[in-house]
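Researcher: Next entry in the queue.
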Amino acid sequence: MSRVAAVQAALPPYRYPQAELTEAFADLCLPDGKGLALLRRLHANAGVSHRHLAIPLEQYGELKDFGAANDAWISAAVDLGAEAVGGALAAAGLSVDDVDLLMFTTVTGVAAPSIDARVAVRLGLREDVKRLPLFGLGCVGGAAGIARLHDYLSAWPGHVAVLLSVELCSLTLQRDDSSLPNLVGGALFGDGAAAVVMVGDEVAVGRGKPSVVATRSRLYPDSERVMGWDVGSGGFRIVLGADVPEVVRQYLGGDVRDFLASHGLTVPEISTWVSHPGGPKVLEAVAETLDLRPGALDLTWKSLDAVGNLSSSSVLHVLGDTMTLDPAGPGVLLAMGPGFCSELVLMEW
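Model: Structure for this entry, 349 residues:
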């Protein structure tokens, strides 16, 4: 097994209440005022009270094209990434020289050299550090990243591996776009980052932390247009189908039960659930299809309210919050994302 030694969340300093973001979004995306009532209703029902933005709110109107938005993404991503990785290593009692692998996941910007390379240079990681940048996993990236680090550490039990997620969703905003996916995305998604330090069995640090027991990936058929991006001259235009909750209801319950059964467990025996927030309808579908006990997803709901949906970073924020409670027994970390797909991680607390 591998172990989670530390989790460090990082948020940009620019924090705004949902109501203020609603009006700013309307100015940018609905200049003629059409659809304003729908926009306000979507924002009010998103389950989000506040969100953090990569840059000050008044600067979004100055981003004239994808290049300008992506430049802002690179600058903020390196700052947040360095903060998250440095904080996670300190919390684990490790130094930058201890890191053998740095994995990076994002779906909100592009860079070459990638953000992990820039963070490695800024923090002074070893010159022989292995790097693995991942793009396109979206909301499932945090869970998938933990699963892939577990795979790596199973082969290299004496190594230290770090997962970094940076998602600056606000910088993908499509102006003058009144489509329903753009309005829903503008109501839910926020900006943030997180880093997870994981270690193999032969590393002394992290004893008593949650262990990863097993993982399972699932890619669902005929679901490419359920969630993702269309990439054009204006940057990333969100693809977000209204059928996401129904896909969750159709597949997730059976997947989780089969996964647990293969390890001699049932849903009622799971003491801790660490779920990506998605949105209110998605969380309701997760709880319904798994028949979870009341309050099982409280930390996920709280995260959605406090910072919004942070794509791949969200489930890592929830994991960090869960670790502060020092739970015991078996747990499941789960997320879903573009593909459409899911990633399940069985943990022991």
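Model: The longest strand covers residues 2-10.
Researcher: Noted, moving on.
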